[in-house]
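Input (structure):
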C-alpha cells in the first residue's frame, strides 16, 4: 500500500515544469544518486519521493532525513546506527537509516548542512556500499539509492571548500532543477485553485466561490520568493480569513505580518550608501517616453505569459479588453 506521499498529486502544466517531470521519470528507474535542486518551497520533497515511487524500489522502504535539523553526532547515529555501549546512553543497538533503507531509497533532505566529516562517511558508503554502526566492528553491506536535495548552490560551496567536491561529483550523477514559481506562472492559478478547494472543504464551506479578477491578477504578479509553499500558505490564510464564503475572494493575505501596529523595519541602508533616485534626463518628450515604456511592458508581459493574452493582461492589472486595445494602438503582434 503506497504511503500518502506516493499518491500526493503534483500540480503543474508550465512547459518548464513538465520538462522537469519528464526528467524525473527518466532518472527514476536508475539506482544512481540524484540531486534535486530548487529554491525553498519549490517542491523538492515531492520530487524526491516521486523519484522513489517511479523506481522499481517503490515497494521497498523510503527514508527521509532532514539533515539541517540534526547535530553531527545525532545525524551520524541516525544514518549509520550504533551498537549498544557505543557511547554513554547508547543502551540498545540502534539501526540506522542506511540499514533500514536497504533495497530502497534514502532521501538526504537539505544536504548542504552536513559536516565535512559526515560527508566523508557518506562518500565511503556510496563508493563501497558498506557501513559500520557507530561503535561497531562489523561491516554491513547495504544497497541504497540516494536522493539528495538542497536549495544552496552546492558548486559554490564546493569551490569554497565547504562541501566535498568528490561527494558532489558522486551525488550529481544527474541533477534535477525545479524552476521557481515566478518562472512558471501558468502553474499559479491551478495550484491556487487546488489549495483553495482543499481549504474551503476543510472549513466545511458548501463550495469555493473562486477568485475575483483583482485577486487572480495579484496572484500572477507576485514574485513568490517562498514559491509553492508561500502560495499555499497565502491561499489558506486568505480563505480562512475571508469574511463571506459566498463571495469571490478579492483581497489576498500575502503578508501575515501586515498590521497597522507592525513594528518599524530595521534600517539596513545607511544614508551614505542609499542610492539617490536618478534625476530624469530633461528636456524630454513625455508622451513619447510613456509610450515607449508602455510598449516595453506590453511586450514583456506577452513574453512572460508565453503569448497567453488573458494572462498577460492580468500581469499588467488590465482587463482583457484594455490589453487588446493597447496592442492595437501600438500595433504589437499578440502572437509568438
Ligand atoms: N507541484 C506541486 N503540486 C502540489 N503541491 C506542491 C507542488 N509543489 C510544492 N507543493 C506543496 O508545497 C509545499 C512545499 O513543498 P516541499 O516539497 O516541502 O518544498 P521544498 O522541500 O522544496 O522546500 C508542500 O506542501 C507541497 O506539498
Ligand atoms: Mg524541504
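Output (sequence):
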Amino acid at each position: 500500500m503506497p504511503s500518502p506521499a506516493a499518491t500526493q498529486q503534483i500540480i503543474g502544466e508550465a512547459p518548464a515544469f513538465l520538462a522537469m517531470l519528464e526528467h524525473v521519470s527518466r532518472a527514476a528507474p536508475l539506482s544512481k544518486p540524484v540531486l534535486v535542486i530548487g529554491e525553498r518551497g519549490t517542491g523538492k520533497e515531492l520530487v524526491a519521493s516521486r523519484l522513489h515511487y517511479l523506481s522499481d524500489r517503490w515497494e521497498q522502504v523510503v527514508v527521509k532525513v532532514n539533515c539541517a535539523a540534526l547535530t553531527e553526532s545525532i545525524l551520524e547515529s541516525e544514518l549509520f546506527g550504533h551498537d549498544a555501549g557505543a557511547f554513554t546512553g547508547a543502551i540498545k543497538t540502534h539501526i540506522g537509516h542506511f540499514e533500514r533503507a536497504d533495497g530502497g531509497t534514502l532521501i538526504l533532505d537539505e544536504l548542504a548542512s552536513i559536516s565535512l566529516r559526515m560527508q566523508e562517511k557518506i562518500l565511503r558508503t556510496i563508493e563501497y556500499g558498506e557501513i559500520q554502526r557507530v561503535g561497531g566492528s562489523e561491516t554491513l553491506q547495504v544497497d541504497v539509492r540516494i536522493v539528495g536535495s538542497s536549495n544552496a548552490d552546492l558548486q559554490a560551496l564546493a569551490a569554497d571548500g565547504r562541501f566535498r567536491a568528490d561527494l558532489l561529483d558522486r551525488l550529481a550523477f544527474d541533477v534535477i532543477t525545479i524552476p521557481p514559481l515566478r518562472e512558471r506562472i501558468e502553474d499559479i492559478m491551478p495550484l491556487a485553485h487546488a489549495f483553495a478547494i482543499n481549504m474551503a472543504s476543510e472549513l466545511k464551506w458548501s463550495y469555493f466561490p473562486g477568485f475575483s479578477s483583482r485577486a487572480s491578477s495579484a496572484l500572477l504578479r507576485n514574485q513568490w520568493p517562498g514559491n509553492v509553499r508561500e502560495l499555499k500558505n497565502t491561499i489558506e490564510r486568505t480563505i480562512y480569513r475571508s469574511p463571506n464564503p459566498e463571495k469571490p475572494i478579492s483581497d489576498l493575505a500575502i503578508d501575515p505580518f501586515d498590521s497597522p501596529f507592525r513594528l518599524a523595519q530595521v534600517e539596513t541602508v545607511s544614508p551614505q550608501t542609499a542610492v539617490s533616485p536618478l534625476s530624469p534626463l530633461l528636456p524630454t518628450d513625455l508622451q513619447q517616453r510613456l509610450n515607449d515604456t508602455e510598449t516595453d511592458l506590453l511586450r514583456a508581459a506577452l513574453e512572460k505569459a508565453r503569448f497567453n493574452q488573458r494572462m498577460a493582461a492580468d500581469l499588467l492589472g488590465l482587463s482583457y479588453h484594455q490589453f487588446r486595445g493597447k496592442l492595437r494602438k501600438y500595433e504589437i503582434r499578440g502572437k509568438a
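Notes: The longest helix spans residues 286-304. Residues 9-179 form a domain with the Rossmann fold fold (CATH 3.40.50.300).
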